[in-house]
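Before the break, one more example. Copy the sequence into your notebook; we will annotate it together after we see the structure.
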Amino acid sequence: MKIRHLLLATTCTAALALGGCATNPTNAQVGTGVGAVVGGVAGNAIFGGPAGTIGGAAAGALIGHEVGEDRDRRQYRR
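Here is what the structure looks like once it is written out:
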């Protein structure tokens, strides 16, 4: 039953997030999302528990945003 609720919540969240995309996302936006997911997984694997997951997601989002923003700046120069 718990898996069913988690799957439903994930599906609804994804549908709402994708429904709000009116334009193509920037590299900074993509980097933030990917960084948060990867950081959350890594934080959970390394530290375990919710604190490790949340901390890893926050750090990953910050790093991913900065890398994506750098790529956006490089594209505008070309």
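The radius of gyration is 15 Å. The mean pLDDT is 86. Try to locate both features in your own notes.
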